Amino acid sequence: MIEEKENIATKAKAKEQRTMIEIKDLHKTFGGENHVLQGVNLTVNKGEDLVILGRSGSGKSVTIKCIVGLIEPDKGEINVFGENVLHLNKSELNEIRVRIGFLFQSGALYDSMSVRENLAFTLRKHQRDLSKDEVENQVIEALESVGLADAIDKMPSELSGGMQKRIGLARTLILKPEIILYDEPTTGLDTITSREISELILDIKHKRKTTSIIITHDMACAKLTADRIMVLKEGVIHAEGTYEELEKSDDEWVRSFFE
Known about the structure:
Strand order of the largest sheet: 6-7-8-3-9-10
Keywords: ATP-binding, Nucleotide-binding, Transport
Strand content: 15-25%
Low-confidence stretches: none
Oligomer: single chain
Pfam families: ABC_tran
Number of helices: 10
GO molecular function: ATP binding; ATP hydrolysis activity
Shape: globular
InterPro entries: AAA+_ATPase, ABC_transporter-like_ATP-bd, ABC_transporter-like_CS, P-loop_NTPase
CATH class of one domain: Alpha Beta
Protein name: ATP-binding cassette domain-containing protein
Structural class: alpha/beta
CATH architecture of one domain: 3-Layer(aba) Sandwich
Helix content: 40-55%
CATH topology of one domain: Rossmann fold
């Protein structure tokens, strides 16, 4: 009996170490009538890239914004690193946020700051004891990881859309996050640049051992990056599987994403 209990405890601990994000029965309504999330349940395991598909307005971006506290859900549970983020105070939530990178659709760079200043500002905000040389070295390292070290003195207005996405990603990577949330990382980019960003997401996963959720409409991005795909419909997870499994789904609505 004791041995059985120990085995159960060991398995539970192993599961906890594997599970990076767990969402249970997540609900969110806007304006009293727009029921965007109506009971979303999902799990993301360590080292996994999960892609979430869905029509516009289906709640994909709302889901990941709830994870980092940018949107407060009406109901549900969100466990990140084993902590229910909805029960954390501001200080505790900030500690979790530092371990999570969030790449916004626009890249969200500060227009009045150079690339160097954008990255340095983020780093100094969270690591105040770094010397000027340490900040500079980490800025260069982050830019090299996205192939844009030569853009260090440029202003955001001088960068193409693809370059802005890369710089936004470098700013995310500078804090060495364990989880990265990508919100439409290839939106507005041409086919070649979109593929480059998708390949960069894969490269980051392999080199930095990150865990990711990728929100996208870009099926080429989904095919290249996804270990697993979930499809949101009417506020719940409607289907789940690999790209190949969902492409051959018996569900005509699910197959429509792959046509």
